[in-house]
Amino acid sequence: MKQKLLSLVFLLLLSSPHLSLSSNTEAKLWSILICTLDERAECFQKICTKLQNQITANNLNDSIEILFFKDNREKKVGFKRNALLAASHGEYTCFIDDDDDVHDQYIPMIYEKLLQKPDCVSLVGIITTNGENPTLFLHSIQYDHYSTENGVYLRPPNHLNPIKRSIAIQFSFPETNVGEDLQWATKLQRSGLLKNEATINVPYYFYQYDGKYNAKTAHH
C-alpha cells in the first residue's frame, strides 16, 4: 500500500502542476509541509519566504526542505497531506498552515532539537481568533487527550509538531477538508509510538484562526 501511494505521488509530480516541491530527492533531516490554494498565494508566499530566509541564514539548505501542494480546491486537504508525507525526504516532518506564522528563530530552534533524535518535538503556540483573544496552547506526549487548564489548551502532538517521518507515515489523514488533522492525531496518540520528545518552552507557532474563512471552506 505504501509503495502504491509513493508511486501515485511521483506520477502526480510528473503529470500535474498541483503538487509542487522546493526540494530535490536527497535525504534531509527535516521536511516542512504546506497545503495551500491558488487564492491564498499572498499568505503562502509570506510564510515560505520567512522559512526560506531562516533556512538560508543558518546554512541549512542541505538539511531542510519545504514541500507544498497547491491547487484550486480540486483535492481534499486530507489527500494533500497524505501526498506530501509520502513525497517527503526528511527524517522528520511537520506541517505549517499557509495562513499561520512562526517564531523568528523557528528553524534554528527546532533544528537544534532534532539533532537529539527524539520521536517528536513538543509545541508551544498562541492561537488568535480573527486577530483577537490570544490563548496559549501546548502539544506534548504528556497529554493523552484534549483538555483546558487555567485557560491553556493542552493537546497530544499533532501534524504541527515535528515528528519522525517513520512514525508519521504510518497513519493516513482521512480525505476530508475539516477535522482530518484531529483524526490523524488521535490515531497517532493511541498508537503509543511517540515515546520521547525534545522540549521547547517558548511559543514558536502562531495559529491565526479566521472564523469567516473557515466557515466558507467547510462548505467547499
Please outline what is shown here:
With 220 residues, the protein is an alpha/beta fold. The protein is built from seven helices and 13 strands.
Q: Per CATH, what is the topology?
A: Spore Coat Polysaccharide Biosynthesis Protein SpsA, Chain A
Number of DSSP-assigned strands: 13
Q: Reading side by side through the largest sheet, how are the strands ordered?
A: 5-13-7-8-10-9
Tell me the CATH architecture.
Alpha-Beta Complex
Number of helical stretches of at least 4 residues = 7
User: What does the overall shape look like?
Assistant: globular
- In helices, the fraction of residues equals 25-40%
Low-confidence stretches: 1-18, 215-220
Identify the CATH class: Alpha Beta
SSE order = HEEHEHEEHEEEEEEHHEEH
Strand content: 25-35%
Radius of gyration: 16 Å
Index terms:
single chain, 220 residues, alpha/beta, disordered N terminus, disordered C terminus
Describe this structure in words.
The longest helix is centred in the first third of the chain and has 17 residues, at 41-57. With 220 residues, the chain is of the alpha/beta class. Residues 1-18 and 215-220 have low confidence and may be disordered. The chain is built from 7 helices and 13 strands. It has one domain (2-217): Spore Coat Polysaccharide Biosynthesis Protein SpsA, Chain A. Helices cover 34% and strands 29% of the residues.
